[in-house]
Structures are given as C-alpha cells and as structure tokens.
Amino acid sequence: MKFKIGYTVETIDDAISGIVTKISDDIVSVEDSDGFVFQFEARELMLMASGNSLENAVYDTDIEAVKREKEIKKRKSEPTVKPKERHIPKFEVDLHIHQLTKSSRGMSNYDMLNLQLDTARGQLEFAMRKRIPKIVFIHGVGEGVLRQELETLFSRYNNVQFYDADYKTYGLGATEVRILQNVEP
What we know:
Layout: E1 8-11, E2 17-24, E3 27-31, E4 37-41, E5 45-47, H1 63-71, H2 83-86, E6 91-94, H3 97-100, H4 109-129, E7 134-138, H5 145-155, E8 160-164, H6 167-170, E9 174-179
Parallel strand pairs: 6-7
Antiparallel strand pairs: 1-2, 1-5, 2-3, 3-4, 7-9, 8-9
C-alpha cells in the first residue's frame, strides 16, 4: 500500500494509530495523538477511515494476506525447566511398609512383600495410564529382597527402563523407572 504524509493510519496488530509524518523506502513513521513517533513497515499499517464511518474508508490492503499473516501460529512459550530439575522425577512412591499400612503387626514378611509389590504394580500402571514419564520407587536398602522383586516386576514390562535413582537425593535405596510412551505395553 502506498501511504502519503498526512494519512491517518492504524497498526494491524497493535492498538496504535496516528498520522504519517515520514516515509523512507518501506519504513513509515507515524506520530500518535500523544506526540510519540513510531516506525513501522508499510505492511504493518492500514489506512484508517476518516470520521467514524468505516463505510467511507478506502482500503488498498490485501485482506487475504493479512488473514494469512494472522493465521501463522505464534510461538508458544514453554515453561523453562532448570537443568537440575529436568531429570528429577515428579512422582515418588515410598514402599516402606510403615507408609503403606497403619500397622504391620500380625503380617508375615511374605504379606508385607506382597503389599509392597501390589502397591508398586498399581502405581506403575497408574503412571502408564496418566503418561507420567518417570517414577521413583523408594524401597530402602535392607537385604535387597524387595529391590530384586521390583526388578523382576519391572522387567515384565517392555515399555519400561529402570535403574538406580539419583544417589544424592535417595541414597542406595531407590529405583527410578522411565516409562517409554510410544511402545506397546
């Protein structure tokens, strides 16, 4: 569009309007009602109607080009994740028996182990359904029976990788599970 000095124009994307004061190549200087001068590319401006009647306005703007430009998706801002937080799992399951039941009195070691494994299986399947990518199972050190049973459980899933959880955070008594989302269970 060819603008001339003295034309009243408005920006397409912002709420800025004013009078053209200078034209240099494709750069148009516009002075708003407060006296501020802004510079825009000609394609960012459109001619404003004189008065309040839009019917009398003569637009020489390619409306389709403006629509196409507006349809170009704006880049979505994603929340920034700090490097240390990137690898910290968001979902933790404490399998210590005192966390799973009010009292383990009267329970055999077999009963306690089954409760812990059932809890682990349930939480793992919940994480899979909810598409949670990482989960940490806190099992403690002990004699390593629960840890071995957990590894046997996890190895039954072909969309699961498991390894020792972060030592600084959990010590030796935790296993981190990574759930691969695009693999059939």
